[in-house]
Amino acid sequence: MPLSVLAITTSPRRHGNTESALDTVLESFSGMSVEKVVLNDLNIAPCKGCGKCEKTGVCIHQDDFAELGEKIRACDLLVFASPVYSMSVCAQAKILIDRCQVFWSRKYVLHDLPKPEGKKFAMFISASGQTRKGIFDHTVPVAQFLFDVSQIPASRIRYLLLPGLDKISDFRKNPEMIAKAKEAGDAMAALMVEE
């Protein structure tokens, strides 16, 4: 059975810099089963902070997160892509990550989160219009939470952080950034096959 890749693009702006970088990375996974999810097309309600998942291990919402959550837990590689919005991930990404509180509750409160399926690798892709120092300092920890509750070891996580891409086509016009994305994808594909 081929290795499985779940790619989640969270930007509300389709085919922008972050999604274009994601698509470039995905070219490296030929021969693998690749599914790309456009988060903005799904119906995922925000977390209510009710704490029910800490008692039951199940979220009270009945929406598209249930299926997506299972895919996150089952894939060999999770590629999570979010642009920088207001110094953090975009709202759509944050809603998804907040809903992963159910995984956190099962792992750290109820201690009954089953061992995940798959090899468990992850990559976080983020593009920012700014170039100032520390521009990704508040996006990376948010993505790390997702990877932690998805039980992905830190040694198997890679980051592709792309500053200075403001206009919607900046990535596609930048050979250096395209090469960086191809290199990141190739390196991850090689790592998955090695381990």
Automatic annotation (TrEMBL):
GO molecular function terms noted in the UniProt entry: oxidoreductase activity
Gene3D superfamilies cross-referenced by the UniProt entry: 3.40.50.360
A Pfam family matched in the record: FMN_red
Cofactor dependency: [4Fe-4S] cluster; FMN
Classification via InterPro entries: Flavoprotein-like_sf (IPR029039), FMN_Rdtase-like_dom (IPR005025), ISF_SsuE-like (IPR051796)
Keywords recorded for this protein, A-Z: Flavoprotein, FMN
Segments forming domain NADPH-dependent FMN reductase-like: 4-134
Entry similarity comment: Belongs to the SsuE family. Isf subfamily.
Protein's recorded name: NADPH-dependent FMN reductase
Species name: Methanocorpusculum labreanum (strain ATCC 43576 / DSM 4855 / Z)
